[in-house]
Amino acid sequence: MSFLVSNIQRFSIHDGPGIRTTIFLKGCGLRCLWCQNPESIRSKPELLFDQKKCLGCRKCIEKCPFNIDNTKGFLSSKEAFEKCNDCFECVKACPTNALTQIGDRITIDDLMAQVSRDRHYYKHSGGGITFSGGEPLLQSKPLKAFLELCQMENIHTLIETAGYVNWKNFEQVLPFVDRWYYDLKTGNTKLHQKIVGVDPELIWDNASKLINAIGLEEAKRKINFRMPVVPGINDTMESLEGLKHLLLKLKIPKLTLLPYHNFGEIKLQKIKPLPKIKQLGIENEKSNLALSKVEKFFKNNGIAISIEQGLFNDQTKNETQTKIKVENRIKKIKNKSLIKHKHHDYTLSTRIEKLKRDYFSLKPGICTERSDNLYRYYKNEENLKKPIIIQRAESIISILTNSTTKIYDDELLVGSWNSKRVGGSIYPEISHIVALLNELFKFDSRKINPLRITKKEKYKLLKQLPFWMKNSFISNFIKRSGTHTVSTLIDALKVERFFINELGGIGHYCPDNKKLITLGTTGIKRQASKLQKKTDDLNRKNFYDSIITVCDGLEKWAGNYSKLAKDLANKLDDNNPRKKELFKISNICDRVPKYPARTFHEALQSILFIQIAFNMESLDNGISPGRLDQILYPYYKSDIQKGILTREQAFELLCSFSIKLSELVPVMDTNTGDIHGGHLAGQVVCIGGVDPEGNDSTNELSMIFLDVMNKLRIRQPNWWARIHPNSPEEFLKKISTNLIDEVHSPALVNDEKAIPILLNKNVTLRDARNYIPLGCVELIPSHQVVGSTDAGMINLVYPLELTLGLKKRGKRKIKNKKKQLYNCKSIDDLVELYAIQLDKLIDDFMIDLTLIERVHSELFPTPLISTFLEGCIESGIDVTQGSTKYVWSGVQGIGAPDVADSLIAIDQVIFKEKYCDLKTLRRALKRNFVGYECLRNKLLNAPKYGNDIPVVDNMLSRIMKLYNDLLNRRINTRNGKLCAGFYSTTIHTVFGTNSHALPNGSLKGTTLSNGLSPAVGNDRLGPTAALNSASNLDVNSAENGLTFNLTLNSNVLYGEQGVNNMQSLIQGYFENGGLQTQINVFDVKQLEDAYENPEKYPHLLVRVSGYTAYFNDLTPKMKREIIDRERKRKL
């Protein structure tokens, strides 16, 4: 038994409650003039022709038994119409899908297999299956059998009907339908015959019988009568009066109005002509006016009216969720610490509004103080006689204590990243030599992300440049690598094969902030002194001296702020409220970080000090405060209980903290900015998740952080939330509210997948449960690892280009490469060749990475960061030598979905369909498909990742595993293995620019996929299919983390039902095995306007790739990608 189906639409949120799959069946006895689904009227398969897709290749004519020419318009002549027998040979021949078959026979079992793929989303949202058409009741026999299956599977069912069938068709399915949408076109008999083509008596009689069969009270709940409002057609007074009387007679005086849209008219142009049905040409303005008129009429006549907007009342939600048996693996526990906060609403205080306004008013700048202080320190020859680690400790303290000390108006938390307030510092000893050489005199005038810098500051840096050319990381790297330097620099500048981030330093740490606020620097110095006395090793003694030095320096630096606050306070009148605040700031800075924090305010100030200091020592990227809701909660709870802190004050302090973190804007040259676009800083604050014992750790502070995200809406921190089956309902709901409110935060990670990934890396269970996402998305056990989690990025498409002979490798070629390619008989043969090229590419990467790591270890230790990472003080060894409890390096693979899509396309088009051979494919790719348009379209129409197609998802898992396995064979200089990550910041745009045309159908220079997100426009079946593809992947190969971008239109998710559907997407995805997602909800039209008129949207936030950025800070290519993520998706 089978259905004749015209379409299956997933993530259908306007055809019933919750997230649904709508199945459109073919066949309808009505001929409504305005028909929205004309392709579903005929009760047989038919042709659909999209002239926009037609290349004019005439292959359809060659295959047609009657040589019908459709290329100028579908069956435009009467002769062609009469000749066509719907054999669909033209469809098989069409390479572009310009010709398609509408109407497929699908068995009940196959249909159930398809719709069951989204059952996780039905379950959590109270959604299910909707049958529409056409008229679904015309296929009542298979419908009955399918609905019985749905009942057995606890899947909610809904039927949309026009009622024009025999009553026995209703009787067959009646026991198995949970909800009815019953369309009434008009209440006037003559008008009904004119505009619908049939007498309405059967429809009205069936409506009465349906109510009687269900029972009136139950029918009021189960039946929604609906009326499509078509201006000038059925909105006359006679029509409305008749419908009013009908509803009153049926004793269900309520009606849902369906706004008219012209989608059906577009479809009419693509199918065989239908008698009577034509284009009406009704404008949206007329539709809105008619809708208002009809609504007013019915309301004035006692008919309850709702307008279809995808919103459903709580009764409907409760009805469907009662039917569905929700089987949570872990019983929900009511989190008492959230109850008080549940309905608390915060607003930004006048103080925070001003601080935010001040922050936004300042253009980011470049501060030279760090470079100046460092230059003075290293120019002193006496300093150069000291051990390197002592030099590093003293130099960082010189940077901090000699920097400008300033407290800005209204600040409660103090400490400056630089003298410009908003901006970044120069790191001439590590990463900024190239930037200074390239753009010293262009920083303030470049088009994208200009950075203010004075002429005096430019010449000061220019004067220092010769010294750093001889004494920087780059100069020392050149000395050690010799002639290989040329190759390394070419790769760094060309950005075609790979890019090594460690050229700029390691970065990417999460310090032990709990240790800081528990012991203070005084307690840490005692620990270091005690261990120093136990060792005779000179290197270890020097290491402990460096620890004591940096702790002393931190105390002195904080003391500068304490003194300044006191001086400022003494200048104010006693009646000035700011005086008391400044004295409090002075006392706090005198206390922390020297001693353990006693209050919430002290703890937050101590963490801010250390956050700034870390970024001054090493690369200012990826230094993450960590799980602050866990670290700060004991102080928050204690202060609340003592009555010395209110929730509003805590909210204000956290807003202040966020603004301070946003004041950091890393300095990058244009090339690096293209790779890490949007002023990437990656300061992760993570909330929620389980504690080390495996219990839910969400608390009231977690909820306040969500309010900070929503109300403040600025670039930093990089907000994350950990989700698990026992996450509180109110926590999930608040996250979902943030997301549909277009906050774009937090990004989300699934504890049930993340923790096992860390266990596979030999992390203990307690440590794994205390993980955080780092920088962008990297998974680490907090404060226990030198992960170098963003060591570099490898272009996975590049070895595919080598395999296909599109690029030359250089000296180390595979013999007879083309011959091997042309001898491939299967996709397995091709993957084997790809693996060889990928392995050799990783070899080249490792040569450079090893040299870079050795220079860092020998000449650029980081004693301050070592102070706050577990294992360093205990061992007496600096972090750059791998002294932490866990050690590894993360190397991102870029373009994995593009590789998988390409291999699947080759498998289908070349190996299975034998459309052409590999030689022809290679020629087409070399020529960017010019002259090979038909082949390109065949490749484009091959299955693509992002559509819940197992064969494609399995291929991507295979590529991921291959890459991770090859990395795992390598060991870094710190004796840690390499592991794979799959996120791209914005380098995928750069790699794409340098790529050839690919077998997935993309043209030369096309942006590659972002992380493990589908390539732009490839997720054609909506978000649930895309999420399922991501959850189908073997994420154990993503040992270093991944990004999966989900982009939704704000016109789709809104209101209470929007929150419910968003929450259900999240829960369904994670329950189905997804690891990570970051969700953008926005209005595409607004983004298009922001692209054309950036001055109108100076602070528009978007999610990029594991982090948030201002839209205006991105490159034009990255802006276009974010817009196209939604615009090109076919929902």
Automatic annotation (TrEMBL):
Residues 14-304 form the Radical SAM core domain. Transmembrane segments: none annotated. The modification Glycine radical is found at G1106. Residues 45-74, 75-104 form the 4Fe-4S ferredoxin-type domain. SUPFAM superfamilies: 4Fe-4S ferredoxins, PFL-like glycyl radical enzymes, Radical SAM enzymes. Residues 350-1003 form the PFL domain. It holds the Pfam family Fer4. Keywords: 4Fe-4S, Iron, Iron-sulfur, Lyase, Metal-binding, Organic radical, Oxidoreductase, Pyruvate, S-adenosyl-L-methionine. Its cofactor is [4Fe-4S] cluster. Residues 1010-1131 form the Glycine radical domain. Belongs to the organic radical-activating enzymes family. PANTHER family: DEHYDRATASE YBIW-RELATED, FORMATE ACETYLTRANSFERASE 3-RELATED. This is Pyruvate formate-lyase 2-activating enzyme. The lineage of its organism: Eukaryota, Metamonada, Anaeramoebidae, Anaeramoeba.
